[in-house]
Design brief:
GO terms for molecular function: zinc ion binding. It is built from 14 helices and 25 strands. The protein is α+β, with helices and mostly antiparallel strands.
Amino acid sequence: MSSHNIESVSTGSEAVDEILKKPLFRDINADDTDADATEIESACMSCFRSGVTRLLLTKIPFFKEIVLMSFKCGYCGFENNEVQSASEIQKRGIRIALNVQTRTDLNRRVVRSDYTCVQIPEVELEIPAQTQKGEITTVEGIIDRTIRGLNQDQEKRKVEHSDAAAAIDAFIERLQALKEMKTSFTLILEDISGNSFIENPDAPAADRNCKTVQFMRSDEENHLLGIYDKTDVAGGDIEQTCKREDNHLLKPLDDGAWTYEDLHGEVLQFRTLCPECRSACETNMKLTNIPHFKEVVIMATVCDVCGCKTNEVKSGGGIEEKGVRFEVTIATKEDLTRDVLKSETCSLRIPELDCEVGPSALGGRFTTVEGILLAMKDQLENGDLMFHDSSDETTKERLQKFLTKFNDVISLKTEVSLILDDPAGNSFVQSLLDNDEPDDKLKIVKYERNYDQNEELGLNDIKTENYETP
């Protein structure tokens, strides 16, 4: 091989290594001149000649990872832009109900995926899932798009089907009345993939006009998303499938081959994707025991590409009989050093700051009170709470004032109460007394869950007696 060819191979290898070091999904940045857009020759849906589709993998606040697609035909000038979610399907579906009362509510940003069903009960409007592409829009934008769709071919319809055209015109007038806020209405987004969102203009305070509920998907909804379990794949015949072990990637261990004690002393490692840049990385997992509490599973991930470091804690036991609520007074340095286990079903609240964080925002983690506060602050400052570059000055000023108050809490200039509410009962806050009884600054309340909390945990449909019978 000539020296020229060797040099070319070396240069190509270095270029590939340089590409692999970059995150797969990158933040949108005006200073980034290397956008890494992919160009594909594709057919124009207008004139059926060849055009160019450009694909860009990036991250948008609220929507996690997305694929931006832009098509343009050089012959007829036809253009089409689409956005598709590239983020993973969430564990549960989500249902968001927004009570639209003012024009400010009409301007709320809305992110919806392909699997989102949109409803406005007051005008009997329903847009079924998978009838429209996912998009980033506003509440008013959803109504506008509906009106434009109804107005298509309306002139032709008036000639051929005058009764239907008159009914559509009357419906459009009702939608226009919603746009002009002549009456309040409810916008409902139901997304089985869990990747939809409605902006909270009062963030980080709780949204008074919006209610979000997570739900367990049915088997039909899982199949629609392409999720199947082994009973579906095996056609329901589990015993026959288990006999054909060669068909399984994961095979059962023999009795005694892996004991419970072995699991306690072992750090398990498996391949996963970085939560920030979606590059391949390793996750370490270990089962450990927290004194005076229970066993938990600790998982830690480090990405060599973007340097992201995350840790997550999951309960090793089941759901407790009762929910638990902790109220911690933060006044001294000693209060900041308490150990805290926050499960993924535990929500956080600081009443003095009117700040509320949902259970899925910070995930499960084993840290201290100070660590929880710093994580909340980091998410407010650097997270995808809002579009920082396009937010109005009032919103930016309100967020800055809140962060100033939050810094006063961390520096102990302001005394506040931190409330951890876990309906599953799998969270824990350390007591500063030796006998593990609650100290003067720690209140622990166990309570009976209501129907909605049991529904969110999937307990209402669990059959605990005669569960082996159909």
